[in-house]
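Example with several molecule types.
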Amino acid sequence: MVTMRANVFRDKGRFGIEEVPRPMAGVGEAVIRITLTTICGTDLHIVRGEYPVKSGLVIGHEPVGVIAELGAGVEGFAVGDRVLVGAITPCGQCAACLSGHWAQCGHGGGYEAVGGWRFGNTIDGAQAEYLRVPHAQANLARIPDDVSDEQVVLLADIASTGISGAESAPVRIGDAVVVFAQGPIGLCATAGARLMGAALVIGVDGDDARLAAAQRMGADVVLDHRATDVVAEVKRCTGGGADVAIEALGTQQTFESALRCVRAGGTVSSLGVYSGKLALPYDAFAAGLGDHRIVTTLCPGGKERMRRLIALVRSGRFDPLPLLTHRFALADIGEAYALFGERRDGVLKVAVTP
Amino acid sequence: MVTMRANVFRDKGRFGIEEVPRPMAGVGEAVIRITLTTICGTDLHIVRGEYPVKSGLVIGHEPVGVIAELGAGVEGFAVGDRVLVGAITPCGQCAACLSGHWAQCGHGGGYEAVGGWRFGNTIDGAQAEYLRVPHAQANLARIPDDVSDEQVVLLADIASTGISGAESAPVRIGDAVVVFAQGPIGLCATAGARLMGAALVIGVDGDDARLAAAQRMGADVVLDHRATDVVAEVKRCTGGGADVAIEALGTQQTFESALRCVRAGGTVSSLGVYSGKLALPYDAFAAGLGDHRIVTTLCPGGKERMRRLIALVRSGRFDPLPLLTHRFALADIGEAYALFGERRDGVLKVAVTP
Amino acid sequence: MVTMRANVFRDKGRFGIEEVPRPMAGVGEAVIRITLTTICGTDLHIVRGEYPVKSGLVIGHEPVGVIAELGAGVEGFAVGDRVLVGAITPCGQCAACLSGHWAQCGHGGGYEAVGGWRFGNTIDGAQAEYLRVPHAQANLARIPDDVSDEQVVLLADIASTGISGAESAPVRIGDAVVVFAQGPIGLCATAGARLMGAALVIGVDGDDARLAAAQRMGADVVLDHRATDVVAEVKRCTGGGADVAIEALGTQQTFESALRCVRAGGTVSSLGVYSGKLALPYDAFAAGLGDHRIVTTLCPGGKERMRRLIALVRSGRFDPLPLLTHRFALADIGEAYALFGERRDGVLKVAVTP
Amino acid sequence: MVTMRANVFRDKGRFGIEEVPRPMAGVGEAVIRITLTTICGTDLHIVRGEYPVKSGLVIGHEPVGVIAELGAGVEGFAVGDRVLVGAITPCGQCAACLSGHWAQCGHGGGYEAVGGWRFGNTIDGAQAEYLRVPHAQANLARIPDDVSDEQVVLLADIASTGISGAESAPVRIGDAVVVFAQGPIGLCATAGARLMGAALVIGVDGDDARLAAAQRMGADVVLDHRATDVVAEVKRCTGGGADVAIEALGTQQTFESALRCVRAGGTVSSLGVYSGKLALPYDAFAAGLGDHRIVTTLCPGGKERMRRLIALVRSGRFDPLPLLTHRFALADIGEAYALFGERRDGVLKVAVTP
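Resulting C-alpha cells for the full complex:
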C-alpha cells in the first residue's frame, strides 16, 4: 500500500501528522498532489471538538496542487496540471446544484444542507500530501503560469466566502456597507464590498492589527467596538443606516449590531457560523415591517468560481497575499495550529507546504 | 366648521364614533368621501393599546371612496372619480421611494421605517366619512365601472400584503410553498403563491373554518397544527423541505416552524408583526451556513400597485369577495370591532359603510 | 451486434425507420428504452434540410422511457425506473452550467452556444427504440406512478420552452402579456404567463383552431392578425403597451410586432428560432432610450427542471394533454411527419410510440 | 418682467445666447441659479437639427446651481442650498416611476417613453442663468461643502448613464467586459465596469487620445478598431467571449460587434442613441437560441441617484474631473459648441459657467 503523510483528527485536542493510505481516483474523481494549503477557523473548531467529524479524518479544505491521477470520465485535464480546488465541491448534477444552490449539493440526489462542504468534513481533506477530489470535472480549476500558489490558496475558502458576503447582499454602486469583524473572512468581505462599488465601507473590529488590515483591504472608515458605540456611529456617518451590513464572525452581538445598523429596506448578509440560539430583536427588526432581508451564504465553490477569483487576482483587482502572514512545513502543522489558534504574532492566515 | 363622523381612538379600550372636523386638501393632497372601508387586525392592536397611536386619531387604513376635493398640484383626476387608496401611501419623492422601498417612505427626505403607513397611524384614517389623502398624485387609483367597492376594498391592505409574501420570496414556477396561518393575510398569501405558479401550496392553521377557506383560496393541502407535526409533514410531502415558507401571523412558533420547513437555500417570507424577542434557532438556520434567506415585507402601496391588483380582480384571477364575511354601517362600528376581535361567526373581514 | 429501429436522417427530404446499432452506456451515461416520444418543429427544419445535422443521425429530442442500462458512476437510479429526459441535457460541470447557463453547456469545459441541445442534433436522438443519455446523473427525471407518459412527454421541450418565455421576462403579478404565435410553444407560453400571475394574457395568431386553443390554455383575449391591427389593439387594451411580449415563432414580423407592443421599460421575451437578418426598428426601440429588454431563452433542461414541470402537471396547474392531438406508432413516423409538417387536421403535437 | 441670458435653439444651425424671461417656481417646483453646466452630444444633435425640439427652447440638461426659489409643497430645502439636478427628472408619482422605471416617467399618469428627459427637450434647459426644476422634491440633490461644482456636473448625465451601462447588465465580480466607444459616456461605462468588480475591462475606440483616457478610467486592455479585429481579439483574450458588452455610441457597427463579442448567455448593455434601422444579425444572435440579453438604459435621474454618485466622488471611488477638459463662460457658448462638436484639442467635456 502506498502511503502519504497527512494531518489526522483523532479526538478533541488530538490530531497530528500520520502515515495514511494515499488516495486513488475513482470514476469522475481526481487525485492531486498538494503543493500548498492553509488552516481555517473551522479547522480550529474541529480540533477543539466544537464541530464533530469522525475520528481518523484528514482535515483541511483549502487545496492547491498538481494533478497526480485522473479517474474515468474526467476530460480536458492532464496529469501535471496545476490546479486550485474550492473548499466546497459541488457535483453539479443534483437538484440543489441544478437550482443554482451549489453549496447545498446533494451529490447527485436532492438537497443536503452544507452538503457541498466535503473536504475535511465528510471525506479526507487537504492538509496532506495527496487529496482525492470528488466530482473532479466540476472542481479542478487550472492556475495560469503567471499566478503563484500563494496568490490563490486563500481563494479556496476565505476569499470566496468573504466576497460572497458582498455579492449575496448584493452591494450596489454607491452603497454604504459596514462589515462586522475583520478576521480573514471579514477582511475579504471588506475587499468585496469595495470591489462591487460601495461608496463607503466601514470595518468594525476590536483588534488594532485587524483594524489596520481593514484599511489596507479597502475600508474607508474603521470602528473599534471597544471604544465606539458602533451602531450610533454607523447611523451617523451613513445618514440613517447602512444599505448593507455583513456579519463575518457568528456571534449574537455582531449579528444584532449588524441588524441595528441597516436602514429600513436594508440587508444583513451573514457569513458567520453560529452556535446556540440567535435572537432577532424585534425592535431592530422593525417588528417585521421594515422590509429587511437577512441572507446567509456558504462559501461558493466549483471550478468556475475559482476561475473568476483567479481572474481578479491576475488583473490586480484583489490581492490576498497580505493575509498570508506565516509559513510552515506540513511536518510542523501542530505549531501552525498553535500560532493560528492563539492569534499570536498578528497572524491572519498561515501557508502550509507538504 | 364642517364636521363629519369618524371612529376616534381615545385610549386603551376607548374608541367610537365622534363628530370631528372634516378634512381639507392641502397642496398635493386630496379629500375623498369614503364609500367603503374595513377593520384590520392592526386596528385591534391599536384599540387594545398594544400599538401606540395618539389619542384623538381617526383610525382605519383601507379606504374606497369618491374624490371630494383636489389640492393644488394634483393632476389627471376629477372630483367625483371613484378611487381606491392603498393602506400605505408613499410620497414617491424621498430617498426610500426613489430606491424602490416605497413602504419605508421618508416623506420627501430619507428613509423612515414603516413611514409609508400613515392612515390611522400618524395621520387621520379611513373609518370616517371623509379622508385626507397625502401625496394624492401617487396614491389615487381609479376604479373601473365594472368593479364594485366590495371587490376592491380588501386590496388596500390584506391582499397587497398577502400577495407580496409570495412576490418577495419570490415564488417560482414549480415551487412547493407552505403558508403559516390562514387569517385574511395568510389566505391572500396562499392565493398569491398559487397565482405565481407554485406547484404545491400547503396551508397551515388550527381553525377548521380557516383551513376550509385555505382550500377555497388555492391551497392544495391543508395541515392542522393541532393534529399534525407540521414540520415533519411538510418535509415529507415536499421531499425534503419547501422552497418557500410564508409567515403570516407574527409569533415565535410560526416563524420558527417556517424556518424549519424550508430546504437548504430556501426562503422564509415574513409578513407577521412581531412583538418581544424573536429567536432564530441556529439548528433550523443550519448554523448560518444553509444559504437561507429571510425577507420581510410591509404592505406595498401606491396607485400603480392598486391598479395591478384591481386588474387581477377584474380578470377573475383573484377574488377577495369570499373574505368579506360581514357587513356593518359606520354607526355600528363598535359592534363590528367586537365581532372581528372575538373572531365570532367565522368572520374573516367586515365591510363598513359610512 | 444488437440493433434497434430508429428514425434516421439521411439527406434533405430523406429520412425514415432503419435498423441501427442499439446504444450502450459509457461512464456517466444511461440507456433508456423509449416508451413515448414526439416530433418537434425543429425536426421539420432538419428533415427539410433547413437546419444541418450529419447524415445518419437518429433525430428527435423528446424522450420518455424506462432505464435499460446505467453506466459507471450513475447513482440513485435503477434499471426499470420510468424517466423523462429533457430535450436539453446539461452536464452540470462546465463553466456555463456552473454559471447557471445550463442550456449553453460546454460539456465539462467552457461555454458552447446551444451546446445543451445534443439529442438529434449532435448525438443520436429519441425517435428510436433506445436512447443513450449523456450526463445521466443530471438528466434522468423519475416519473411518479400517478402520472402517465402522455402527460409528461411534452414537458421535455415545448412546455419547458414555452413556460420559460414567461419566466425569463419575468412576468410579474398583474402584468399584461401578449404572446405572438399560438403553436405548441406559444400555447405553453400563454399558459406560462397565466401561471405566473399575469392579469391579462393576449394570444395572437392567424389560425382559428390555434386561437381557440389559446383560449383553452389561458388567454383572456385572442387577436387574429389577419383581421386586427394587433399592435394598436394591444396598446388600446393595455392602456399604452404590454409589460411583456413573448415571441414564439421566429419571424421578423412577430419579433417586430412584439417590440412595438411593449411599453417603455417593457420586455420582449424571445423563444423563436430566427433565420436571416433580424431588424430592430429604432423607432419601436425608442432609439435605444426606452429601457427595453430583449431576452432569449433556449429550452431549460436537466432533471430538476423536469421534476418541477412534472410537479405542475401532477397538481393540475398545467395540463399539456390537449396539445397532444394525434398518435402514431414509430413505424408510421413518416406519416406523422407529413401530418405534422402540413399542419393537417388541427394537429398540434403527435405522440409517437416505439 | 425679469429676464436672464440663456442659450436658445431657433432652427437647424441657429442657436445662441438670448435675453429671455427668468422662470418662476410653480407648485412643487424650484428655480435654481445655475453655477455650472456643460454640453452633451445630444445637444449637438439638437443644434444640427438631427433631434427635433421646438424653436425657442433653452437647451442643456446638466445643471449645478443654487436654489433661488421654492414653489409651494417643496419641503426640506432652503433658498441658497447648493444642488445638483439630474438630466432626467422623474416625478416619482406616475405608473412608470412607481414601477421603478423612473426614466420613462409619465408625469403623474402612466408611462411616457423617454418622458423623464425634460430639460432642454420638452421644457427649458440648463444652459442659462436660471432653471425651473419640475418635481423639485424628487430632483434636488444637495452638494456637500467638500465637493466642488466641477466634481459633480458630469454626474447629471454622462456618469449616471455610463455607470448604468454596467449596472443594467449587471456586471458581476470576475466578469470580462468590453466597452465599445470611449467618448465621455463610454469612459464612464469603463469606470463603471471596473467599479462593479469586472476582472477584465476592455476599451474599444479608434482615437488615440480616447484610448489613452480609457486606460486612465480603468480599462485593463484597449483595442484600436482601426488596427485590430476587435471581435476576434475579445474572444481570444476572454477565452470565448465577454460576459458583458457595453455599447456607448449608437451605430450598427458597434452594436453588432458588441453582440458578436459576448459569449452564449452574455449580455449586451446598450447606451447609444440609434437612428435608422438596427440589424440584429441572426448568426451573432445564435438564431435566438443563445440565451442572450439585450438591455437598454436611459440615464437614471432623481435626487437619490445623484446622492449616490456624489458619494462615489466624495470617497474617491470615481473621479470625473479628467473628463472636464475645457472651460467656457456662458457668453462664449457658441465657441464651446464649435470646439466640442469638432472634437478639437482632445476635448471630452466642457465646463460652462453662467
